[in-house]
Amino acid sequence: MLSPGMAQLMEEAEAGDAEAANTVGVQYEMGLSVVENYNEAMKWYRKAAEMGSVEALYNIGAMHEGGSGMPRNKDEALRWYEQAAAKGHGGAQTRVKILKEPASGAK
Description:
By secondary structure, the chain is an all-alpha fold. The chain is built from six helices and no strands. The chain has a single domain, classed as Tetratricopeptide repeat domain (Serine Threonine Protein Phosphatase 5, Tetratricopeptide repeat), CATH 1.25.40.10. The protein is globular. The N and C termini lie far apart (54 Å).
């Protein structure tokens, strides 16, 4: 059973609130107020991204980069970070720079 706060958040997300949908994703990714579930987190992040949440674009990139519930995928992470960076997300802009840098020691 969901807490009243989580139930309210999910209701807002289902009604089209992008930031609420992103927050539901965070709750599932971190196991806050619900059992940790990376598949559910990604589902909610994607919904939030489709609704226009720049933070959700970043969070999807972070899940791909970190391998949260999936194999690590730098190229996929970069794709999502670039979308967030193009919309002004500072953290995504930093991750794009870092991921595009040649590996240290590489020739």
